[in-house]
Amino acid sequence: MTRVCGRVATATPARRGHFPLSYQGTFSLSSDKVPANPGRGVDDGSRICDSRAQVSDSQSSVDIKKAIITAAGKHQRTLPLQSLVDHDGVAKTALRIVIEEVLRAGVDQISVVVHPGDQAAYSAAAGSHAKRLQFVEQGEPLGYGHAVWCAREFAGRDAFLLLVGDHLYVSGKPKQCALQLVEAAANENCAISAVQATHESKLPYYGTIGGRLVAGRQGLFEISKVLEKPTPTVAEQQLVVPGLRAGHYLCFFGMHVLTPLVMDILDDEVRRAGAQGGVHLSSALGRLAARERYLACELEGRRYDLGLKYGLLTAQLAIALSGQDREEVLAGLVELLATRAKV
Known about the structure:
Elements: E1 2-4, E2 7-10, E3 28-30, E4 53-56, E5 61-64, E6 66-71, E7 83-85, E8 91-93, H1 94-104, E9 109-114, H2 119-126, E10 133-137, H3 144-149, H4 152-155, E11 160-164, E12 167-171, H5 177-188, E13 191-199, E14 207-213, E15 220-228, H6 232-238, E16 248-258, H7 260-273, H8 281-291, E17 294-298, E18 301-305, H9 311-321, H10 326-342
Parallel strand pairs: 1-10, 6-9, 6-11, 9-10, 13-17
Antiparallel strand pairs: 1-2, 3-4, 4-5, 7-8, 11-16, 12-18, 13-16, 14-15, 14-16, 15-17
Helix pairs in contact: 7-8
């Protein structure tokens, strides 16, 4: 299925969730069905795990089984199509690796926001997972927030997992990063964004938050402010988070669990921006923080932005060093370094 933002190309309407249309509050998640062994969610690239994170409001309860992956940006759209060797030693596209991250979090309905005309390439890159994808086209490049908004009919009134298509993740524990985030949202009963302490030199690439540590909770922050790609000066003035190293700020990880209220806010942002665009998700998240409980969480893992200089290489090394061929890769690196030392 492909949906063009604002009109249907060839479509079956997305299933509407059980949240009431007037829903404006927080949502409630229960983690009692998160798998005890998350590593068994996907084995051959085609089977998904049975578990589901549970979402409910005061009137109803539904499974969280929707994810949105954005991949329509001018400088982003080819990156998810690149091939890497995954931790299991199998060559996969970056898109397939992201999809399998989502499936292991118990989410099996996935919408991919693409540039017009890119669906065929993305279907091929998804491999055996292509049949479970729904595509939405972002007809005009009006900002990242606009890209997310384009998937509003897919999201309906359900909470959803949001990821960017040009980031890959390496977890520091058996549970992958997306599952860690879903569990954190379940435990805290609210929208939550993954963040990573990032040096100020990389602030031009990321949305950044200000806030404070939740009392008695390690790695969990109450968000007070969200700014899109701030300068180091602005970050120092408005976004310092006590406890971080000097010159480091909490930047978005490229992964969020968000409530239906975000789509309502984005709808207003898109209407106000009109044809000029410039709709940022960070602005909508700043408004979200003022209206309902919204937290940030440092996951046990690292993000790797494929769009940075040497980003694809760095991601490949990180994945390889966390996988089954670690010793082989290390031996190769040592040999390479020894050879360069003799030159």
